[in-house]
Specification:
125 residues; alpha/beta; four-stranded mixed sheet; 38% helix
């Protein structure tokens, strides 16, 4: 699978463009996913075509925050992405790495898991 960054719910065009510019030097595929595709498996959205399912209807609302999923990256490349995001000055609180477990989940399920994890971690500080 090609190294891919999936972006969800980046409604502020300036923020999205700044983030995209910060990631471009890493030479990864950057793909903004529209709401109507949120019902598809996240792995399929990242390019794992074997995960294609029947056309999933858009049955949920938009996400409550900006969300980024990193797919096909090793730990060094994940670190590079996180540094580039930090350097851009844009805070993206909800970030995930595509795994064998979550690649079959739809966007809403993955986002809710990451959001709950983020809230647990924030309550510890």
């Amino acid at each position: 699978m090609r190294e891919t960054i999936l972006l969800f719910h980046f409604t502020d065009k300036d923020r999205r463009n700044r983030l995209t510019r910060a990631l471009l030097p890493l030479r990864m595929k950057i793909k903004e996913i529209p709401l109507e595709d949120y019902g598809k498996p996240v792995g399929y959205l990242a390019g794992i075509k074997e995960l294609e399912t029947e056309e999933a209807a858009c049955e949920g609302e938009d996400l409550s925050g900006e969300f980024m999923v990193m797919a096909g990256l090793g730990s060094d490349r994940i670190d590079q992405v996180l540094r580039a995001v930090r350097k851009s000055g844009i805070s993206v609180p909800y970030k995930a790495v595509l795994t064998g477990e979550n690649q079959k989940w739809d966007v809403w399920k993955l986002f809710e898991e990451i959001k709950a994890e983020h809230e647990r971690m924030s309550s510890l500080t």
